[in-house]
Design a protein that fits this description.
This protein is α+β, with helices and mostly antiparallel strands. Helix 3 packs across helix 5. It is built from eleven helices and 13 strands. The strands form three sheets. It has a six-stranded mixed sheet, with helices on both faces. The protein has a four-stranded antiparallel sheet with strand order 10-11-9-12. Strands 2-7-8 form a three-stranded antiparallel sheet, covered by helices on one side.
Length: about 375
């Protein structure tokens, strides 16, 4: 892949100079959805699919971006000295946001770059193509400018950029999972204090199968920020009766005692999901450590139901594909993954049932929705790397 992309880079930008290549993975969250901005736990892992970049420094301040995925757009121009956000700039807003964040922190990035990107994560699928680009850009800048930044710093810079440059009020999970990923391990992360541990993923005779609805979603355009506001409103009400900083501090029992303090019935439902999903995630990791894959699967199913009815972020496509998945033989669990409103589901399926599962779910989904779904049997990969 590296050689192929370097050839493509030279075709687009010409020869000469020191050309370097990098990779950052995508991520899938096994359980713990919409908990990361509520001070709860998440359980994501990095994937072996992700985003590649090939780049070299320039002698002027120009930025030139090119995506193999959007060849029809050609080279998109920018400038190190003019990094103001403009939605019309399109996908380069993600790498530009990282440069903007670093410059805001007093890091002197004074020369421009030519950068070619290529991703084999489906765009808008909920597997974090945007966070992958952010961490990847942070990695290449760290390497090229010899910056004193840890991988955890790259995650925090990516989140800051997404929040303050691109205007999406996301939590830390996506960038953290990508920056800190380890092969065959998921990350049990407490988003309240960033304490984390790696958990071995032993699926025995099963595989992780991603279910892509092919309904694209854009986080900034979705109701993502609205859900976050609803949770904040619920938290303010609860803080009048119980001393907490985040919803993630409550157990299910405590929530049931104090929930009447939440004035809005809608906000009460949102908070219920945040509290119960956090506890489901803690139970799921415990079940996995004990080798109880069946319980893990049941908690995945409960997670989807909560996201469907209490958090209301699933939609027709995700509900159709998860429902079809759960009716197949050999399925241990399935749920939506990512922010919702389209994108992907994730399932754990017995090895000998995978082919039949993909065929049957694909037929049922197309019949009900009118267009096809895509399926990926994925492996858990490492974090970002210099190629």
């Amino acid at each position: 892949m590296k050689e192929k992309l370097i050839r493509e880079f030279k075709k687009v930008f010409g020869d000469g100079g020191e050309i370097k290549a990098y990779f950052a993975p995508g991520r899938v969250n096994l359980i713990g959805e919409h908990t990361d901005y509520n001070g709860g736990h998440v359980f994501p892992c990095a994937l072996t699919i992700g985003t590649y970049a090939v780049t070299r420094k320039r002698k002027d301040t120009k930025l030139r971006f090119y995506s193999v995925n959007f060849k029809h757009l050609g080279i998109l121009d920018g400038d190190i000295t003019k990094l103001e956000y403009n939605k019309k700039d399109g996908w380069p807003c993600y790498p530009k946001g990282i440069i903007w964040t670093l410059k805001n922190r007093g890091i002197d990035i004074s020369e421009g770059m030519d950068i070619l990107y290529y991703g084999n994560i489906p765009n808008g699928s909920g597997l974090s193509s945007s966070a992958s680009i952010e961490v990847l850009t942070g990695l290449l800048l760290r390497d090229m400018w010899k910056l004193d930044l840890t991988n955890q710093d790259l995650a925090l810079i990516g989140q800051y950029s997404e929040n303050h440059y691109n205007g999406v009020n996301c939590g830390i999970m996506d960038q953290f999972a990508i920056a800190m990923g380890k092969k065959n391990k998921a990350i049990f992360l407490d988003t309240a204090d960033l304490k984390y541990e790696y958990a071995d993923i032993d699926l025995k005779d099963s595989k992780i199968v991603i279910l892509n609805t092919n309904k694209r979603r854009g986080l900034g355009d979705s109701k993502y920020n609205e859900r976050r506001t609803e949770c904040e409103e619920a938290l303010l009400d609860l803080q009048k009766v119980v001393e907490i900083k985040t919803l993630g501090e409550l157990s299910e029992e405590q929530f049931e005692i104090y929930k009447k303090a939440i004035q809005s019935p809608i906000c009460r439902k949102r908070a219920k999901h945040a509290v119960y999903e956090n506890q489901r995630t803690i139970k799921a990791v415990k079940a996995l450590k004990e080798g109880n894959l069946e319980e893990f699967g049941q908690l995945m199913i409960a997670s989807h139901k909560s996201l469907q009815y209490d958090y209301e972020v699933t939609g027709k496509e995700l509900d159709t594909i998860v429902d079809a998945a759960l009716r197949q033989e050999g399925v241990i669990g399935a749920r939506m993954t990512g922010a919702g409103f389209g994108g992907c589901g994730v399932s754990i399926v017995k090895d000998d049932a995978v082919d039949r599962f993909v065929k049957n779910v694909g037929i049922e989904y197309k019949k009900k929705i009118g267009y096809r779904a895509d399926f990926y049997v994925v492996e858990i990969g490492d974090g970002p790397t210099i190629l």
